[in-house]
User: Which sequence fits this backbone?
């Protein structure tokens, strides 16, 4: 076998590195389907994430808020909110898990937002100024918003529990009895 020149060794070395990088990328994109998947805002899988392919079995949910690894995950049909939170690495120390119905069944395309504890340490929920968190609001807190009475407040909490949380204030428009004027008051008094 003839001896390789320095230039040939550099070329072969560069080719070997390129092959290793392509293989590593391929292995990362060929992730274990049991781990679910995450896609960034541009539809591309990022470092340490797994891509969700369309047409797969199960349902796809977006898990956000106070979880260790927020993102988009594929879960089996019949999964619950608690399963989605666990798939996203579990709750952080700032999470308020009682702000969601952890037993609610997930729906395909649903967003699960795990709310954060009150930003003011030691203060009771609702004692902070500004908008009320939709994920943690109580009947009493919702009742303080103009145009919302105890019955509508209870309807909002039931809606939130049935859907495993509410991703945006606009979703509350689906509740019977909430019209355009009430929606405007909710936009001003609530934070998603």
Assistant:
């Amino acid at each position: 076998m003839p001896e390789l020149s320095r230039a040939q060794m550099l070329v072969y070395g560069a080719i070997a590195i390129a092959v290793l990088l392509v293989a590593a990328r391929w292995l990362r994109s060929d992730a274990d389907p049991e781990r679910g998947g995450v896609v960034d805002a541009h539809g591309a899988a990022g470092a340490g994430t797994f891509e969700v392919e369309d047409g797969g079995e199960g349902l796809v949910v977006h898990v956000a808020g106070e979880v260790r690894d927020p993102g988009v995950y594929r879960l089996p049909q019949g999964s619950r909110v608690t399963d989605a939170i666990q798939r996203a690495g579990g709750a952080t120390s700032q999470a308020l898990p009682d702000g969601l119905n952890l037993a609610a069944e997930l729906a395909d395309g649903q967003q699960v937002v795990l709310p954060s504890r009150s930003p003011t340490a030691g203060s009771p929920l609702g004692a902070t100024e500004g908008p009320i968190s939709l994920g943690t609001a109580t009947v009493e807190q919702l009742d303080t918003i103009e145009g919302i009475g105890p019955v509508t407040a209870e309807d909002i909490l039931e809606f939130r529990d049935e859907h495993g949380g509410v991703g945006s204030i606009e979703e509350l428009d689906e509740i019977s009895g909430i019209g355009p004027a009430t929606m405007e008051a909710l936009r001003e008094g609530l934070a998603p």
